[in-house]
Amino acid sequence: MWKKTKVADQTATGQAGIKKKSKVPGVMITQFLEELPEGKTTPDFTRKPIALTIQEGKHAFFKAIVVGDPQPIVTWERANGELLFHPNVCFQRYDEAAQEHYLEFPKVAPEDADTYKCYATNEYGRAVCTAVLNVIEVGFSMTKQLQKAKMEDVSEIKKKLKARKTDGSREDKPMETEEKVWEILLSADKKDYERICCEFGITDFRGMLKKLTEMKKEREEEIAQFISHIGTLKPVEVKDDDCATIELDMDLVDSGSKIYLYKDGVMVPVTREESDGKKHNLKQVGNKYIFTIKNLGKDDAGLYSVDVGGVNVFSTEFKVPEVDFAVKIQEVKAEEREDALFQCVLTSPMNEIKWYGKSALLSNSEKHEIIASEDKLIHKLIVRDCLPLDAGIYAAVAGIKSCNAWLIVEADKDPAKKSKKSARKTTMAGAGNDEELLRIAKEQQERYQQELTEKMDIAKKTQAAREALEAAAQAEEEAAKKAHAEAKAAAKAAAKAKRAAAGKDGAVRKSKKKGADAGTASGSGNEAQAGALGVGAGKNAAPGVGAAGSAEGARGSGVAGSTDAAGTPGGTGGPGLAGSAGVVGTTGAAESSAGTAGAGGAGMSIGSGGAGLGNGAAGAGGEGLEEDFEEDEDYDSFEDSDEDMDAKGTEKGEETVDGSGAGEAGEGGKGGEERETEGKRKKRVRAGPLVPDTVIDPGVHFQAGLSDCKANIGEAAELECKVSREDCPGIWYKDGVEITSSEGVTISKDGCFHRLKIDKVTEEHAGKYKFEADGRKTESEIVVEDPPRFDAEELEKFKATVTVKKGHKATFKIAYVGREPIKVQWYLEGEELSDESNIKIEHSEGSSQLLLLKLQRKDSGEIKIKLKNEFGSVEACTELNVLDKPTPPMGPLEIIEASSSGIEFKWKPPKDSGGCKIQNYILERQQIGRNTWKKVGPIGPVALYKDTDVDHGRRYCYRIRVETEIAISELMETEDIQAGTKAYPGPPSAPKVASAFKDCINLTWSPPADTGGTNILGYNLEKRKKGSNLWGPVNPHNEIIQAKGYAVKDVVEGIEYEFRVAAINNSGAGEFSTPSEFIFARDPKKPPGKVTDLKVTDSTYTTLSLSWNKPKDIKGVEDEAKGYFVEIRLAENTDWDRCNSNAITMTSYTVKGMKSLAMYWVRVIATNDGGEGNPQELDNYILAMPPPVRPRFTDAKVKSFMVVRAGNSARFNMNFEASPWPEVIWLKDGAPVSKKVTVSNAEGNSQLLIASAERSDTGIYTIIVKNIVGQETFSVEIRVTDEPKPPGPVELDENVPGTVTVSWTASPDEKRDDRLHYMVTKRDSVKRSWHTIADRIFNNKFTACNILPGREYQFRVYAKNDMGSSKHSESQKWLIPAKKEKFTVNMPESKPCDLQCAPKFIVPLKQHTAPQGYECYMSCAVKGDPTPHVTWLRNSISLNTDTNYFVSNTCGVCSLLILKVGSKDTGEYKVVAENPLGRAECSTKLTVRE
């Protein structure tokens, strides 16, 4: 027949092959096949990567060019460690234009230095080459040193990870974020590193990798102490039975090592027994450990960690999405070879869900197709070509929700197709409710969008309320500023009047620099001021204190301020710490109408000639005046510019929002805290709206926009959107052109819904559609697809089975439509067909034809055509039936009857009937001993025949053939069958001994069940002595035994015998029975006596162990015991129960199945062949219980402190042992526990459970276990708490240079949680990551040191307790500008070096002995500056010009080569080196051997 194409398995990479060298040195090629197909080649390098030495921080890359057919795949590896691909570390790319492969390092680091391998692989071979990357580390780097100084050591991180108790378990407290992220990274795949870093805000990716590598090495060493091998690690996986599992394979070094499970750092109680009441279970199957979490809920989300013996082995994060099933999957009934469809609708979108088939996870394959709708709400599973094996329960899992349903496959009951594969069906079971699902999905989408809108509205309202509060506060601040400005203007007017009265002679001229030296101080507290900073005392304020001055250390001290107009004394000036203070007038009094000017904080205080000026607002707004002086280069005196100064000061003071120029007095200089940033002043912000707010109609908006639509040609397509108002008209556009209703296109409006429907889509309908209403727009796109498809009538014709005879041809043709190009494939029984001598495939426009020539029977089967283009694929199937001669009937022959009256037998039908129905079986018969065959004739299609024309005792043989409408099969010949065969009886039962004496043994037996079809005539009996192999007859052969018993008298006293019996019928004697038991020929024995020394050796609640001694043997009275029976009875019963049905020979026994604490009587009876002796009872009754034991707790290490989140359950287990059964009492703080606490007691265990713990449940719980022997107690402290609330606002203050004092408002939980404390973290502008600078702070203040100028700092404060940490409270940014000095480099002078020297031989000539005719090579090394002239001499004759000698001088290495040494070359050789500074010689001798 023809060949059928199959896809050959690709040779595995790395498999042994043919090694060969490339033309490029250093490239090794491995060829997988001995002979390559024509035109195919193995991979090779035309340009290989070259070694690279580069400075740290530079851009490095390797480049390679490869060739081969097929095109090779290029991969990179490194010799030490694994290659991590990350855009900031290392990546590979391909330049299509130059056909070059690159491995690039954007900023090469010292740890990147290694040997790198480049692999080029295709299906025929592999090429490999190597390249070395050397990295030169640069000198001292301040940035690197700071990073190293700030980078935490791995050991410090390990210390931060969970501290552990002495038993290896973790301390019971929730994990911090830093601990959590490192534990996740230690168990994560490398492909997830980038996602985890983004999620937790890690920016130093390279530093993280280095730190993580060290931590992994340490953990591997720790794990090796407890685990010899660890294998598959499976993260949390949700199953279809409402549970999640964590699986890992590991071999424990010590099988007794404890295994712990933690959730977010808190231990989870795990039971090793499967029970419905336990949420967490651990199951061990060999080396596989499976943790199961049942009854999943939202609270089960978190980080789960598995620890062994105190070492973390594996961690995985479990996330629970908020999703449920709006429509669950339903039961589907499908016919065999039909497709089945399961579909469900979710409440919120998910990209994919998990599908399970008979508890096995399913994925996209030829058998199963998983589909999700565009809105990710409808999910479908299609089971292709259903067979009976596919029946079962299928489940869909979304998040932690699951639903399941049955797939029932109804098998084809047609007997004609029972042994043959039926045709594939194109129908799909379970479909038909798509419209309903789309409607429900649309409702869910609207509900989902509505929930999102509501959340956004709530957020907007919250934001609006916050902005309203800020606007109100700003309005109050503007009012205060206005009042302050008016007061300031009045003060200036008064000061101007006084100056005018005093005259111009008292005016003082002052430049900017002089003003600064005289003590003009800014009261704003601005870090940018180089002069002294002061805290001014303004209106109703405390005395001012001088603040830190500039780095130059200006001098001055604060002086007491003057009184205001009302007589209120001014604040006393504090000492200037490092800068100038304000100076008051020496003769006149400085006045302030608005308030008292603090001497250390006055914005300006200048006096001269008995008149002083003091501005009361300068304590908070002095910055404005000082900036005037700095910026106005033409300022000279108050005479010329007092008005300008007043105007400018006021104007500049009012520029900032917070009042840096005219800020409120009494703020201690903070009015100007919002100051210049990078040389630019912030603009004033409007306090309120310029015009009154009016309610504006938002107009029409879209509640549901248009969605993209895909439609096949000829199908209907619909676009729909929803607006907020029903009375809103709209316009539809296609590709920017307005469209209206026309033939085939319908535009409709239903309330708020606007729809555009196309009845039959064509390619002209494809494009972008837009709907516009009231200026709002929404767009979507209609994509017109034209997948391949068949005409319905053509498909029905094609499905009809094609039947042809062997050797004939068969033609299959079908037409199709669809967008070209279309790939057409024909299959026979699943194997693709291609053009060959017996296969012809022809394609024409819109149709395809398959022609099969010279068909054989084995070519019967399913013919399938598959069409595929860019839009999809379609299949059609039919059946090919090739008719041929049937095969012979099948054996073996089954004989139903073989008697003297007839022979009846049956056989199996032929394996292949040739594609036709069986019409008849043709039989022939031969009597054994004759040569002729008698034709019995056709007997019909039933494989059964009864031959009644037989002679008794004759043997017959039969030939059977199969007849169909096509032909008659070959024959099947049966074995010989005898008519009326002899039937012997079966064996009787084994003889039983009725009684035995020294001269007679009486036996009985039962007749055989199979009598052979005739009556039993009698029996033959035989005997055999013990130890003999010979059986001897008991009765003579001519005297058969008629009865079913016999008295054997031919015995010898003391000898042991066994007997067997055979039944006799008309056919003869049958088989003998199994032998009887051995029996002595002796008189009956006497029963034994009582056992002695009966006692109890051990007891439990259900068992009792006994021991005893043999009874005494008294001849003639009591014989020796051969076995024993043990009997017990309850004290309230009178009947004895025998524990062992057969006598035991041991003198000890353990009674099982006793009732706990029940009272029993026990006795033992001895027995032998003479019967049972008298029983021996115990003196007293026995209680079913173990020996008394004082209560004690069996857990080696039990935690005495437990933290539980409020609302969660608290569970505490205690294991103990005690006998008898103890009384268990639980107390809380010395009093009995309340009713809400559930106590469960079992054998050796007691459990305390608080279903929903509250803070009031906190206390010390005590368990008391006591019985009649004693008692034992244990106490555990259970603390019920919750995550703390965050602290209040964070404030920053600088009291000492180089430090910042961080203060905050206490958390609301501080009063009710005595273990609450705080943690402070810091981030600067150089390194953007957050670092913990203080922890376990129990007050509300912390001073941060090492605050460097020029860096911007920010602080966060967390509240922490036993449950975890709160959300952070964040401070404002803090910046102290830094002054940069010039950097001068002093280069040392270099001295010239004189390298001239006379010639000198570094390596002298050696003596040489050379065979005659061989070459001789002499060399030496000489140095000298200038370069010396070298002359070779033999026997004082120069050789430099002799052509028989080759002389060379390369960089001081002088050589002489003699090609063929002869006797004439023997002699002394000398080298002379000369230069202007001297001369040197070196000589040797050459000896020539013959």
From TrEMBL:
TM segment ranges: none
Record Pfam families: fn3, I-set, THB
Ranges in coiled-coil conformation: 442-486
Organism: Oryzias latipes
Stretches with biased composition (Acidic residues): 624-645
Annotated ranges, domain Ig-like: 43-134, 692-783, 1191-1281, 1399-1487
InterPro entries: FN3_dom, FN3_sf, Ig-like_dom, Ig-like_dom_sf, Ig-like_fold, Ig_I-set, Ig_sub, Ig_sub2
Residue ranges with Basic and acidic residues bias: 646-655, 670-679
Alphabetical keyword list: Coiled coil, Disulfide bond, Immunoglobulin domain, Repeat
A GO CC term attached to the entry: M band
Ranges of compositional bias, category Gly residues: 568-579, 660-669
Region named Disordered: 417-436, 500-526, 543-579, 615-689
Domain Fibronectin type-III: 888-984, 987-1084, 1087-1188, 1286-1381
Bias-annotated ranges (Low complexity): 543-554
Name of this protein: Immunoglobulin like and fibronectin type III domain containing 1, tandem duplicate 1
One GO BP: sarcomere organization
